[in-house]
Design a protein that fits this description.
The structure holds two protein chains of two kinds. Chain A is mainly β. Helices cover 0% and strands 54% of the residues of chain A. Chain A is built from no helices and eleven strands. Chain A has strands at residues 4-7, 10-14, 19-25, 32-38, 45-51, 56-59, 62-67, 72-77, 86-92, 101-102, 106-111. In chain A, strands 2, 4, 5, 9, 10 and 11 form a six-stranded mixed sheet that branches. In chain A, strands 1-3-8-7-6 form a five-stranded antiparallel sheet, with no helix packed on it. Chain A is globular, with a radius of gyration of 13 Å. By secondary structure, chain B is mostly beta strands. Helices cover 0% and strands 47% of the residues of chain B. Chain B has no helices and ten strands. Chain B has strands at residues 4-7, 10-13, 19-25, 32-38, 44-51, 57-58, 67-70, 76-81, 90-97, 111-115. In chain B, the strands form two sheets. A six-stranded mixed sheet of chain B has the order 2-10-9-4-5-6, with no helix packed on it. Chain B is globular, with a radius of gyration of 13 Å. The N and C termini of chain B lie far apart (36 Å). Chains A and B meet through strand 5 and strand 10 of A and strand 5 and strand 9 of B.
Chain lengths: 112, 116
């Protein structure tokens, strides 16, 4: 089955700097890759997603890149703010509506 | 994003009792419901998948007789933890899916279960 690895496990950045979180997946059939932000005691919140027929997607300060050949995808957050501090999870699935396999998560701390 | 309502947000119960968690999709019809479990400082692990009107499919290692899932309508699914024990203490999160939800997966706010 699918296996998703996520790095780093923790990331500390200064406010205003950029943050990059990377994930690799094992199943070449996976074609949907969402990213979630989870705050303490809350459910995950979808922040951006990408399908395998797209190499990059951007939404304001957040962007996701996908390298299907290498089977890895990354989350880029620019101009980080203290409210970006949270746990971020990457995930992979075969398609919309299929179960998600999650990475282990990255604790992002933005220092002001 | 889609509106998902999950209740209760937290529950404390005695060992041996049963606890029911409700998940509602408020603005679209959920033909499929995913139930996840998350232990402290860990990732989300899928427990089971249910399709409306059908029996749930459980992931390996998840006891179907312990975690009862009902998905009798397109807007409501319930997870009942039967004869709960301290090791069942965890954060349970639902994720409804349906074409009306934009084909994306959104999550409920989660239920923190603590079994004494």
């Amino acid at each position: 089955g699918e296996n998703v690895e996520q790095h780093p496990s923790t990331l500390s950045v200064q406010e205003g700097d950029s943050a990059v979180i990377k994930c690799t997946y094992s199943d070449s059939a996976s074609n949907y890759f969402p990213w979630y932000k989870q705050e303490l005691g809350k459910g995950p919140q979808l922040i951006i997603d990408i399908r395998s027929n797209v190499g990059e997607k951007k939404d304001q300060r957040i962007a996701v890149t996908l390298n299907k050949t290498a089977k890895h995808f990354s989350l880029h957050i620019t101009e980080t703010q203290p409210e970006d501090s949270a746990v971020y999870f990457c995930a992979a699935s075969l398609s919309y509506g299929n179960k998600l396999v999650f990475g282990a998560g990255t604790i992002l701390r933005v220092k002001s | 994003g889609a509106v998902v309502s999950q209740h209760p947000s937290w529950v404390i119960c005695k060992s041996g009792t049963s606890v029911k968690i409700e998940c509602r999709s408020l603005d679209f019809q959920a033909t499929t419901m995913f139930w996840y479990r998350q232990f402290p400082k860990q990732s989300l692990m899928l427990m089971a998948t249910s399709n409306e009107g059908s029996k749930a499919t459980y992931e390996q290692g998840v006891e179907k007789d312990k975690f009862l899932i009902n998905h009798a309508s397109l807007t409501l699914s319930t997870l009942t933890v039967t004869s709960a024990h301290p090791e069942d203490s965890s954060f349970y999160i639902c994720s409804p899916y349906g074409a009306g939800g934009g084909e994306k997966l959104f999550f409920g706010s989660g239920t923190q279960l603590s079994v004494l």
